[in-house]
Amino acid sequence: MKILVPVKRVPDPATTIRVMPDGSGIATDNVKWVINPFDEIAIEEALRIKEKQGSGEVVLISVGQTAWQEQLRTGLAMGADRAILIKADHPLDTLAIARAIAKVASDEKPELVIIGKQAIDDDSNQIGQMLAEMLGWPQATFASKVELAGEKCTVVREVDGGLETIAFPMPAVITTDLRLNEPRYASLPGIMKARKKPLNEIAVDSLGVELAPKLKIKTLNAPEKRQAGRKVASVEELVQVLHTEAKVI
Amino acid sequence: MGDVLVFAEHRGGHFPKTTLIAVNAGLEMARKRGGHCIAVLSGEGAPAAAAEIAKYGPSKVIVLDHPKLAHYLADAAAQALADLVKKTGAETVLATATAVGKDLMPRLAARLGAPMASEIIAINDDGTMVRPMYAGNALATIELDGPVRVVTVRGTAFDAAKPADSAAPVETVAPELDAAALKMEFVGFNEIKSDRPQLTEARIVVSGGRGLKSGDNFKTVLEPLVDEMGAAMGASRAAVDAGFVPNDLQVGQTGKVVAPELYVAVGISGAIQHLAGMKDSKTIVAINKDEEAPIFGVADYGLVADLFKAVPEMVEEVKKLKH
Ligand SMILES: Cc1cc2nc3c(=O)[nH]c(=O)nc-3n(C[C@@H](O)[C@H](O)[C@H](O)COP(=O)(O)OP(=O)(O)OC[C@H]3O[C@@H](n4cnc5c(N)ncnc54)[C@H](O)[C@@H]3O)c2cc1C
Ligand SMILES: Cc1cc2nc3c(=O)[nH]c(=O)nc-3n(C[C@H](O)[C@H](O)[C@H](O)COP(=O)(O)OP(=O)(O)OC[C@H]3O[C@@H](n4cnc5c(N)ncnc54)[C@H](O)[C@@H]3O)c2cc1C
Questions:
Q1: What pLDDT sits at residue A91?
Q2: pLDDT averaged over chain A?
Q3: pLDDT (tens digit, 9 = 90+) per residue, B197-236?
Q4: Which ligand is nearest to the CA of B244?
Q5: Is A125 within 8 Å of B106 when comparing Cβ atoms?
């Protein structure tokens, strides 16, 4: 079975993010770039399905700049078979990114797209759901367990108030939540092999999809910083101040 | 012109506070766009919930009635809402960013070819909106182009709608669905039952982290404090990942965002991903044995102590206050 996994390059989650004084973006000097953590979980899930079935292909796809090759190579080193970089030199909105991935998906014809629920930088939580609609496929967002049986897929989802189970035929889109699995690290032999795996580039303009952004980011501002308060000496004092000063209990 | 459709989520006729928040944000959006706010419901129990929602200020309430909508599933709901957008000519479709809101709205946006803004925290008079990015470390002012747009709102940034003087009319619409294209099937819901207040609705939230060390300690050490304070219980990702408490309790960038009057963080270090989910709380208390823990950087009151000693003491002190 063929599984397509979209991959986004994002700042390491441990990075302290600073907004540029002119509001045009964030300061990217000293930023370490990594695969979006939810996409690592997606790659891991795809690899496990392939390993369990004993055959198949895991294809990575990014819509980004040349530098994104680095994250695609890391994904290949984890064990993915090949990668596609759709080259876009200007930032696109979620609709355009989803259209570009949907176009490639309709050519590649995977049985599953497994994709992170959310990019930890832009935090939209949109692309998987958009992709599912564009392809006319079922969607299972926020997956914490995936089970395949023949053509059918059953997914346990993390929702408000509990866990929901849904079922659907493939092809389909699954978006990953944190508890789905623990991603493996790339091994040294994996890194060696990854160098020789195919990484094809396609210009985004050649896909023939609408790209003009309908969501425009006008400016970025740093939020007001919360001031640290004070230390209290004892539990007794804490409860007193909460009662008499903060008046919350 | 400028009409707003609010997707009013409910379960079996009962709706959470987040639904009233969506209605209120919808009313604000409609006012600023010179249109009406229309609440939309579907699923089992929708007529009962519609009669209630009608009392909270919308101009009209629409019940979408179709057998395929009995239990919420994204594919059918997106089709039905898209059909309604065409029928009503609405400009904005809005929902709170709950699990359902996040699941449905992007699919709807794609169906409409409309841009979508996730988890906005403000609606400006000039039509722009504000949304957090980078775990809340940046606030983006954004603009959505085109005749239709889709928005989710962050529950902590808007108040709940208040009862109005009169109830709006309720109308039933049978949407046209392409049933052959609907392939999703609801199998079951494993509900985590709790008598405590909802995490996103509570006035007080007490959260535990890895410092609690086990699920048993959550029960025997933290829960007595949670209950003595009449609070909702929350947790860090580390506590959820370790299996101490259910997923549903995770507070943070990739879990739930809360802003109660009082947030008590116990044995939580204060990673940016956790802060993203609670730093707008009115008063923050941190109990941690490490005085360097970043959580103290946002806490109004910090107590450097061993939680296993401090928390039982706190239960007693809070008890005293009541007598
Ligand atoms: C300088 C700059 C300017 C920008 N200007 C705009 C703007 O004007 N309008 C605008 O809408 N956005 C703008 N963006 C942000 C934009 O490029 C976002 O990355 C995009 O909107 C996707 O949102 P998201 O990553 O939050 O998606 P989400 O829906 O949160 O992502 C979910 C999943 O989709 C996949 N995914 C996301 N992006 C990609 C990708 N590029 N390739 C492959 N898979 C991907 C990943 O698997 C991810 O886990 C700008 C960014 C920068 C750096
Ligand atoms: C993609 C991604 C998404 C994430 N999303 C979230 C999210 O939504 N929410 C979230 O919370 N995290 C999230 N995280 C994880 C986050 O980065 C931290 O790892 C996590 O918040 C740490 O949890 P913690 O504070 O409980 O554990 P730790 O960081 O291990 O802190 C435990 C604290 O307990 C204290 N302690 C230990 N014993 C005692 C004692 N006896 N008495 C008092 N204090 C004690 C310690 O001093 C320490 O400060 C995410 C991470 C990633 C990469």
A1: 87
A2: 97
A3: 999 999 999 999 999 999 999 999 999 999 999 999 999 9
A4: 2
A5: yes
Sheet with B262-266: strands ordered across? A230-231, B301-304, B283-288, B262-266, B204-208, B232-235
Least Cα distance to A212 among B146, B263, B6 occurs for B146
Please count the residues of chain A: 249
**The tokens of B17 are what?**
């506070």
User: What angle separates helix B74-88 from helix A127-135, to the nearest 10 degrees?
Assistant: 80
Query: Does residue B323 carry a pLDDT above 80?
Result: no
User: Measured between alpha carbons, how far is B291 from A137 in angstroms, rounded to an integer?
Assistant: 51
Chain A residues inside the 8 Å CB shell of B306: none
Q: Please work out whether the CB of residue A91 comes within 6 Å of at least one atom of ligand 1.
A: yes
The number of beta carbons lying within 10 Å of the beta carbon of residue B121 is 18
Alpha-carbon distance B5 to nearest alpha carbon in chain A (angstroms)? 19
pLDDT at A3: 98
Question: Do residues B215 and B182 touch, judged by C-beta distance below 8 A?
Answer: no
Distance in angstroms (rounded) separating the CA atoms of residues B99 and B12: 17
Confidence of residue B1 (pLDDT cuts 50, 70, 90): confident
Listing from the earlier edge strand, what are the strands of the sheet with B170-173? B116-120, B149-153, B92-96, B4-7, B37-42, B60-64, B170-173
Reported pTM: 0.97
3-state secondary structure of A184: coil
A162-175: per-residue pLDDT in tens?
A: 999 999 999 999 99
* Chain B residues near residue A236 by CB distance under 8 angstroms: 313, 317
Q: Report the C-alpha gap between B191 and A159 in whole angstroms.
A: 10
Ligand 1 centroid–CA A95 distance in Å is 9
Does ipTM come in above 0.95?
A: yes
User: Among the atoms of ligand 2, which is closest to the Cα of residue A120?
Assistant: 1
Is the backbone peptide bond immediately before A11 cis, with ω within 30 degrees of 0? Answer: no
Decide: helix, strand or coil at residue A201: strand
Query: For residues A154 and A172, what is the distance between their CA atoms, to the nearest angstrom?
Result: 11
Q: 3-class SS at A77?
A: helix
Index of the ligand 2 atom closest to the CA of residue B251: 9
Q: What span, in angstroms and rounded, lies between the C-alpha atoms of B97 and B312?
A: 36
* HEC readout, B98-167: CHHHHHHHHHHHHHHCCCEEEEECEECCCCCEEEEEHHHCEEEEEEECCCCEEEEECHHHCCCCCCCCCC
- List the structure tokens of A7: 């991959």
CB-nearest to B241 from A169, A178, A234 is A178
For range A109-127, the mean pLDDT? 98
- Residue B279 identity: K
